[in-house]
Amino acid sequence: MKVVKVEDLNVGDNIIVSSNTKLKFMTVLKKPVIGKPKSWRPNDVNWKSVKCSIKVKITVLTYGSGTYTTTRNLKEYVPTFEDHDVNMYVNLNYRNILLIEKDDNYAYNKN
């Protein structure tokens, strides 16, 4: 377990990234790629968003009565590296990334 930078990530790495007050437990699905340079930090390398998988639990809330009912979906990120069900792109520029496990034999099925 160590803190790494975006350029050190590979496909299959299990990482933890902070998101507001919660932690996201993610698996890297695509190797990070260098993006276009930004003018406000000309000497830094800007990375494109990295495709990761994550486990999300969605809770549907319905409240109100009669004609004024409202539904709301609450997303809760489950702290586990198993049974990921959502693929998402995450911007990891200038973030603290905690590398938990490096998996060199990871095979991502693109179907």
Describe the protein in words.
The chain has 111 residues and is an all-beta fold. The chain has one domain. The protein is 0% helix and 42% strand. The protein has strands at 2-4, 14-19, 22-28, 50-54, 56-63, 70-77, 86-90, 97-101. Strands 1-8-2-3-4-7 form a six-stranded antiparallel beta sheet, with no helix packed on it. Strand 5 and strand 6 form a beta hairpin.
Keywords:
two-stranded antiparallel sheet, six-stranded antiparallel sheet, mainly beta, 111 residues
In short:
The protein has 111 residues and is mainly β. The chain has strands spanning 2-4, 14-19, 22-28, 50-54, 56-63, 70-77, 86-90, 97-101.
**Helix vs. strand class:** mainly beta
Please identify the oligomeric state: single chain
Major beta sheet, strand line-up: 1-8-2-3-4-7
Q: What's the total count of β strands?
A: 8
In whole angstroms, the N-to-C terminal distance is 31 Å
N-to-C order of helices and strands: EEEEEEEE
Chain-wise SSE layout:
Layout: E1 2-4, E2 14-19, E3 22-28, E4 50-54, E5 56-63, E6 70-77, E7 86-90, E8 97-101
Antiparallel strand pairs: 1-8, 2-3, 2-8, 3-4, 4-7, 5-6
